[in-house]
Amino acid sequence: MPGRAGLALVLALSSAPPSPAPTPSPAPTPSATARLEYCSLLRKCGLSAPRECTEDLTRGVPGVDYDAERCQTARELGQRGLDPADPASFRLFRFLGERYQVVYRLEGGLAISVARLNYLLDDLPLAAALLTHFQNTRYEAEYLDGPTRRRFKARRGDNLDGEATRVAGDPVGRDLVYFGRGSSKIGPWRMRGLGLVQVRYAADPTGKGLRYDVRVVAAPINAVVNLMMKTGLFRRIVLGHIREILDDVAEAGGKLEKEGPGPLGRWSAEEREKIAVLLRLP
Q1: CATH number of the domain at 2-15+101-280, please?
Q2: Taking the complete model, does pTM exceed 0.85, yes or no?
Q3: 143 close to 149: Cβ distance less than 8 angstroms
Q4: Which DSSP helix (H) or strand (E) runs through 248?
């Protein structure tokens, strides 16, 4: 689902302690198609594969060209410490190996410092509260894994919601990768499914603000949806949604700098203290 790029910017940490995990139910056995997509990606892209990936399961998915572009994300994740052969990685690498794939990329600049964006990404409850307060758009989010703060659910208004996990990176490294499931309204379409988002950013060489590079990977369910998602109109709508959320972050930061946090009653004592720290950053 391509509209989830903004989730990485609006996460929130649950204020409640994590609930006891329910007794896990047995994982469903992957279909033959799923195993073919997973095993073929690993073998064709030169990644480690489990013993279950037999020769028949690594013959390649019809219609898929395992070139540098198709293998790029899987190889990068492997280099960053994700073991493709780990059963926990099956869903992610199978997703990257599905027959149809669409990639959206957006590059640009934001009028916010790297230090402040790092702070907001590392204190996501505050980021969500500031965005809601200054942008008149409801941002909601909650971490689902307690102090680990890698798995979350989030919502922006009525057109974006989902659950995702940060599978690689952190704000300090300025290179984060999220993978999850959600839904978004893209023009007249309501899209649901899995998606992967990579967010990279660095200080602008001019010394003003930062430059960002957002890459979104989606896996259309069939040839018709694949064709639709590759049209110029659909691509413009998707990138417009991403740009709106990134602009919200920069605009909220500018309003906070100019106007301050507003009435004290709007914020808790802890939030006021965090806002003060944020405003002291360059």
Answers
A1: 3.30.530.20
A2: no
A3: yes
A4: helix 232-259
